[in-house]
Specification:
The chain is an alpha/beta fold. The chain has eleven helices and twelve strands. 40% of the residues lie in helices and 19% in strands. Helix 3 links the parallel strand 6 and strand 7. Helix 6 runs antiparallel to helix 7. Bound molecules: pantoate (PAF). The site of pantoate has 11 residues, from helix 6.
Length: 318
């Protein structure tokens, strides 16, 4: 594992945030405010993307607003210890390609996005010498403007070794180091030995809430209405069948319960997919219901409901 204890303890730890969406700026703001003198945190500016703002207006969970200077870099002078990639699933491969010259073998790469199957062969090659972690987060954060975010709900981030990059051994003291560091910056951070199961649970939630809220143009809370009960059951049945074929054991009743709880807990929110569809932006559908659809084709398992929702969401943004 490449989180070098010396670097962590004696020298400054260099952290790069890639992605200036709500979650990227949430982590950047917390690093800027909470990391004292032991960490240099930078925001990555891709040459291909619009210029990042010089300052970020960050309103925290207690409604206090901070104006934070953006420490922007395009090409770091010193090696990065941690690169936190907070982009949408469909932007992930481009982001990894953009930063491949920044990633050295000691860099710990952390990705955080919805869905499964987002890393392509090329990205896997770029990352073959690195420890790659996946972070699933339940923090609520709203991007009010290009330079303004609001932390709307305190959540939990689960961190574990990413399954679709050749799994590398990560010693438990190093797991603790990285978990502790991130937890100090933006709690709660929990280490998870089986992040893949968590990813499937999140996938099931996203397979239901995201397309239904986008297709029917509703808030998350409306998903619990009885008119959606049979669709939810079919979607989850198919997710369970695909999971099982891939060696992931999922419990249908528990999954449905969790989906409904999440819909209730986020009742007044618009899902990320509904927001994307409303603004005619690309959605993460390829890696959510699209992942179930494509896996079904590969495994010869019918997934009619996920396929239908996949196609309906695709049609929304054409
Ligand atoms: O993508 C989203 O919006 C979220 O993952 C979730 C859980 C569906 C809540 O809105």
């Amino acid at each position: 594992m490449k989180v070098d204890n010396n670097a962590m303890n004696k020298q400054k730890t260099n952290v790069l945030i890639v992605g200036s969406g709500a979650i990227g700026l949430l982590w950047y703001s917390h690093f800027a405010l909470n990391s004292k003198h032991s960490i240099n945190c930078y925001l990555y500016q891709s040459a291909k993307r619009k210029a990042l703002p010089d300052e970020i207006k960050f309103t925290n969970i207690n409604d206090t607003t901070h104006v934070i200077h953006s420490n922007i870099i395009t090409q770091p002078k010193s090696p990065m210890d941690i690169v936190l990639v907070c982009v949408k699933s469909y932007q992930l491969n481009q982001a990894i390609a953009d930063i491949q010259s920044i990633i050295c073998p000691k860099t710990l790469v952390i990705t955080t996005h919805n869905g499964l199957g987002a890393l392509n062969t090329q990205s896997n090659q770029y990352l073959e010498n690195n420890i790659v972690l996946n972070m699933l987060t339940t923090h609520g954060c709203l991007k009010v403007a290009d330079n303004e975010i609001k932390h709307t709900g305190a959540g939990i981030s689960h961190l574990g070794v990413k399954f679709d990059v050749a799994e590398k051994y990560l010693e438990s003291n190093k797991q603790k180091d990285i978990r502790d560091l991130l937890h100090t910056i933006l709690p709660e951070v929990v280490w998870c030995d089986d992040i893949l199961s968590k990813q499937w649970l999140k996938l099931a939630i996203n397979c239901v809430i995201n397309p239904l809220t986008a297709v029917f143009d509703i808030k998350n809370g409306e998903v619990i209405n009885p008119e959606f009960t049979s669709i939810i059951e079919q979607v989850i049945d198919e997710v369970v069948a695909i999971g099982q074929a891939k060696g992931i054991s999922l419990d249908k009743v528990q999954l449905i319960e969790t989906v409904l709880l999440v819909a209730q807990a986020t009742a007044n929110n618009s899902s990320s997919m509904r927001c994307d569809a409303q603004q005619k932006r690309e959605t993460e559908i390829e890696y959510i219901n699209g992942y179930i659809h494509k896996s079904g084709q590969e495994l010869n398992i019918p997934t009619p409901k996920n396929t239908e929702l996949y196609q309906k969401v695709l049609a929304l943004t054409f």
